Amino acid sequence: MATYIMFGKYSLDAVRKISARRTEQAEALIKANEGTLNAAYALLGEYDLLLVAEFPGMEQAMKVSVEAAKTFGISFTTAPAVSIETFDKLAG
């Protein structure tokens, strides 16, 4: 499984619909695409959300990113990530 960092921005309509139920639906969307949600944070600043998720591949991460925008009105910037230990091995 690969790790992906997902930075989310709420649309105005999405802000109006913030709820624990929608959070559960988003986690179900990730699971339905063979992923695991490892962490979720609300942010202040340029982005409203930060998700750390694992997916088998880029296709699943991309599908969740697009589906979340369509379903919840939250647009995501999604980037693959590796641990510092892995990065050190790759770069060293």
Radius of gyration: 14 Å
CATH homology group: ACT domain
Strand content: 25-35%
CATH class: Alpha Beta
Query: Tell me about the biggest sheet?
Result: 4 strands, antiparallel
**In terms of structural class, how would the helical and strand content be classed?**
alpha+beta
Give helix % range: 40-55%
The domain tally reads 1
Let me know the number of strands: 4
- Helix count, per DSSP? 4
Low-pLDDT windows of residues: none
Termini distance? 23 Å
Q: How would the global form be characterised?
A: globular
Arrangement of strands in the largest sheet? 2-3-1-4
Q: Provide the residue-averaged pLDDT.
A: 94
Order of helices and strands: EHHEEHEH
What is the correct CATH architecture? 2-Layer Sandwich
Fill in the keyword field for this structure.
alpha+beta; Alpha-Beta Plaits; 4 strands; 92 residues
Explained architecture:
This protein is of the alpha+beta class and 92 residues long. The chain has one domain: ACT domain (Alpha-Beta Plaits, 2-Layer Sandwich). Helices cover 45% and strands 34% of the residues. α2 (20-32) runs antiparallel to α3. The longest helix has 15 residues, at 58-72. It is globular and about 45 Å long.
What's a quick, concise take on this entry?
This protein has 92 residues and is α+β, with helices and mostly antiparallel strands. It has helices at 12-16, 20-32, 58-72, 84-91; strands spanning 2-10, 36-42, 49-55, 74-81.
Topology of this protein?
Blueprint: E1 2-10, H1 12-16, H2 20-32, E2 36-42, E3 49-55, H3 58-72, E4 74-81, H4 84-91
Antiparallel strand pairs: 1-3, 1-4, 2-3
Helix pairs in contact: 2-3
